[in-house]
Amino acid sequence: MSIEKIMLTGLKADHFRHPLDFAATNALKQLPGLDMLVRNILGPVAEQFFYVENIASSVLVSDRQLPDLHQLLVESSQILDLEPPQLYLRQHPVPNAYTLAMRGRQPFMVIHTSLVEMVTPAELQAVMAHELGHLKCDHGVYLTLANIIVLGTSLLPTWGAAIAQQLQEQLLQWLRCAEFTCDRSAMLVSQDPKVVMSLLMKLAGGSPTLAPKLNLDAFVAQAPCL
């Protein structure tokens, strides 16, 4: 029996942003010119490439294309009180999801087919909610640069790749802190801690074959008492 979820009308990013996200974001903002560099130079080049690539090699989810997945996205967006981005499904053997977004541009989310095959619909919605957390918290500028490093540094001009590599350590530290915030976003949409814990378990050591056999209680018990 499904339980009707609470819509968080009027939700603000700072209502659930993790303190480490605050600190790491402020640290990046202290780097002179980084925001302008990514927003005006690196970001548009990378986003245009990834956007065109997604159109060419991924499936755009909509109310006419995989409507069950589309409805999960719409409900997640309604709970978090923001407009849903475009969602693409991409054939890929590595379970993953990512978001690219800049202010004033169409944000889009990409989910790999291998991730869909490994999780339940509720867990997949938690993945979407995690990615929506990046949009809700306006992580777009630094998230774009992080995705450039992770997904396609080699696709940028030499000077762009060099800048990205120099920032890699600090940026990936920021990304880890931002992920804490987005895990909170997943919890806000899921409204069931076991769904999020099960998702994290499957991402840590799951596969389409093993996922149904994993024991959530045993996974939770393996965590050290801090």
Would you give an account of this structure?
This protein is an alpha+beta fold. It has a single domain (13-190), classed as Zincin-like. The protein contains ten helices and four strands. The chain has helices at residues 19-29, 34-57, 67-80, 113-118, 121-136, 140-152, 158-166, 168-190, 193-205, 216-221; strands spanning 58-61, 86-90, 97-100, 108-112. Strands 1-2-4-3 form a four-stranded mixed β-sheet, with helices on both faces. Helix 3 (67-80) crosses helix 8, helix 5 (121-136) packs across helix 8 (168-190) and helix 5 (121-136) packs across helix 9 (193-205). The protein is globular, with a radius of gyration of 18 Å. The protein starts with 18 loop residues before the first helix and ends in a 5-residue tail after the last helix. 35% of the residues are buried.
In short:
This protein has 226 residues and is an alpha+beta fold. Helices cover 60% and strands 8% of the residues.
Descriptors for this entry?
alpha+beta; Zincin-like; 60% helix; globular
Rounded mean pLDDT score: 86
Determine and state the CATH class.
Answer: Alpha Beta
Distance between the termini: 35 Å
Class based on secondary structure composition and strand pairing: alpha+beta
Helix content: 55-70%
Name the CATH architecture. 2-Layer Sandwich
Low-confidence segments: none
- Characterize the overall form: globular
CATH superfamily: Metalloproteases ("zincins"), catalytic domain
Element-level helix/strand string: HHEHEEEHHHHHHH
The strands making up the biggest β-sheet line up spatially as: 1-2-4-3
Largest sheet: 4 strands, mixed
User: Rg from C-alpha positions?
Assistant: 18 Å
Query: Helical element count?
Result: 10
Total number of β-strand segments? Answer: 4
CATH topology-level fold name:
Zincin-like
What number of structural domains do the residues give? 1
